[in-house]
Amino acid sequence: MSAERLFEAFLFQSRWLLAPFYLGLVAAIVLVLVKFSEELLHLVMTLPSAGSSDIIVGILALIDLSLVASLLVIIIFSGYENFVSRMDTGDNEDRPEWMSHVDFSDLKLKVIGSIVAISAIELLKAFVKVGDLSQEELAWKVGIHLTFVVSGVLFALMDRLGNKH
Q1: CA-based nearest residue to 116, from 79, 150, 158, 160
Q2: Distance separating alpha carbons of residues 61 and 67, to the nearest angstrom
Q3: Distance CA 82, CA 93 (A)
Q4: What b/e readout covers 102-127, taking b as 16+ CB neighbours within 10 angstroms?
Q5: Quick check: 122 and 144 in contact, CB under 8 A?
Q6: Beta-carbon contacts of residue 99 (< 8 Å; ≥ 6 apart)
Q7: How many CB atoms lie within 10 A of CB 77?
Q8: What is the DSSP letter of 154?
Q9: pTM for the complete prediction?
Q10: Which ranges in 84-103 belong to alpha helices (H)?
Q11: Residues 22-60: pLDDT tens digits?
Q12: Among 81, 114, 110, 108, which Cα is nearest to 95's?
């Protein structure tokens, strides 16, 4: 076997170095689950004395954590399939339909879309508790959210322009 073929085989097999990253992201989902459980327990325990804005903020925190966990699943599945190896799930009917169809470009858009959604939830939580924030803090939150929105639109635009060629 030539040196070039050996080198190319080595490079091709090096994709497996990404596998521990995806395993670490699975561990991150466990951490998000722990935090979700803590938030849910806190919400249930404070429910009798909580005002409606406290309940709304608590529910938004749960939604926020659910979005983060869902985003991690998308990154794990599509990243693994795009960069490491196809997942052989056999005839499992629970295999998500999107799994084989999310390429790197779609993954970028899903990530930025999720970040925008998470940012929007954080901003909504801030608006519910607007009395607890200074004008400057609120302006920063709105500015950061708008930055994410503009970034998302620009990513989508670049992707669309790139796909025309």
Answers
A1: 150
A2: 10
A3: 21
A4: beeeebebbbbebbbbbbbbbbbbbe
A5: no
A6: 77, 78, 81, 87
A7: 19
A8: H
A9: 0.77
A10: none
A11: 999 999 999 999 999 999 999 999 998 988 888 988 999
A12: 81
